[in-house]
What does this fold into?
Amino acid sequence: MPTPSTTSPADRPDEAARRSHLRVAAYVGDRGWGETGMATGGLLAGLDERGHAVRRYCADRDVKGRVSARGIRARRQPLGSLAVRHAFRFAAELRLREPDALILTSMRTAWPGGLAASRASVPRVVAWVGVESDVPRGRASRYALRTWIDTAVFPTDAIRQRFLDAVPGYSGEAITIPP
It folds into this structure.
């Protein structure tokens, strides 16, 4: 009989199954509980149900409370559009949590979130471009998308094409996933 400090091979988690579970971080910039916030909440809840470790970051205290009430780990984390200090603080958090992927849900967070993910060596960064107004206009956003974003996801081919026109030289994946 194994002692409390030892386990039999049958008690150890299957190594392949353990490795297949991902650590996913998502930054949702919604101030309030908007459509993107609810959709991301559903995505993270589904990943959590499948055994993946998920954590949602947001700037709003009330949103953090709503997310936590649904059983998703959440943390309040400011991430202003060009606030370098926010990016460095977020990078420290990402280094601590070591996510396998970071999901960013607005162009306002592409630059600081991409910089944070780069500094924390996050292997995969995904940007959700859900509405036409999210198509990047500024140089910082275009730079971030070309440099730090591995995959951009769109709800329609029209938004995808506007994005590709706005970000010449984007070499990451550009995927349309209809709602």
